[in-house]
């Protein structure tokens, strides 16, 4: 079993570090999501791993745009391979910590993202940056999602019982 991960310290990079800068506009989430998905896919990730990585990227980038935007500042998205797997980082200019909302409503249009994130990644956390702002990171899952159980073939229908009384002759 691997050592536990410190939520303020992501796994160290080993290879493949790359970064993209995004503006603070809504279309940045799509650009970042597509970039992350392509990165995972191009490194041999399964289709569902690439899709999950894009959902995680969308959540973290959207949170940075919505809750951590500082006028005049963009968002950086960094990806790298660590000894434990691929790591996604979103860097923004806000010092405000990401906080999951307790007691969210299932009918709410927002507020579930960080709670959902915990199910989609191996680990996640954040840490302040020395120059100001913060980095929110996620250790992406590399194993394919479990496949659903195959559909069962229903048993053959039983013909209806004959309700007519037996006749004797």
UniProtKB/TrEMBL annotation:
UniProt-annotated stretches for the region Disordered: 141-169
Protein name in the entry: ATP-binding protein
Record's compositionally biased regions (Pro residues): 145-160
Domain of life: Bacteria
Keyword Kinase attached: yes
Source organism (scientific name): Actinomadura parmotrematis
UniProt domain Histidine kinase/HSP90-like ATPase: residue ranges: 28-136
Keyword field: ATP-binding, Kinase, Nucleotide-binding, Serine/threonine-protein kinase, Transferase
Listed InterPro entries: Anti-sigma-factor_SerPK, HATPase_C_sf, HATPase_dom
Pfam family, one: HATPase_c_2
Molecular function (Gene Ontology), one example: ATP binding
Coiled-coil regions, chain positions: none
UniProt xrefs under Gene3D superfamilies: Histidine kinase-like ATPase, C-terminal domain
CDD domains in the cross-refs: HATPase_RsbW-like
């Amino acid at each position: 079993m691997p050592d536990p991960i410190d939520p303020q310290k992501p796994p160290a990079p080993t290879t493949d570090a790359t970064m993209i800068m995004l503006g603070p506009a809504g279309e940045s989430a799509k650009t970042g999501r597509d970039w992350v998905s392509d990165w995972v896919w191009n490194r041999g990730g399964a289709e569902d791993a690439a899709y999950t990585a894009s959902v995680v990227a969308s959540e973290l980038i959207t949170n940075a745009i919505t809750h951590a935007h500082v006028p005049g500042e963009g968002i950086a998205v960094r990806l790298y391979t660590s000894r434990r797997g691929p790591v996604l980082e979103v860097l923004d200019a806000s010092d405000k910590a990401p906080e999951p909302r307790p007691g969210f409503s299932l009918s709410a249009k927002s507020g579930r993202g960080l709670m959902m994130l915990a199910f989609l990644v191996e680990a996640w956390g954040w840490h302040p940056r020395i120059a100001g702002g913060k980095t929110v990171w996620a250790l992406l899952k590399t194993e394919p999602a479990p496949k659903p159980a195959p559909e069962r073939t229903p048993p053959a229908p039983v013909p209806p019982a004959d309700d007519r009384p037996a006749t004797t002759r």
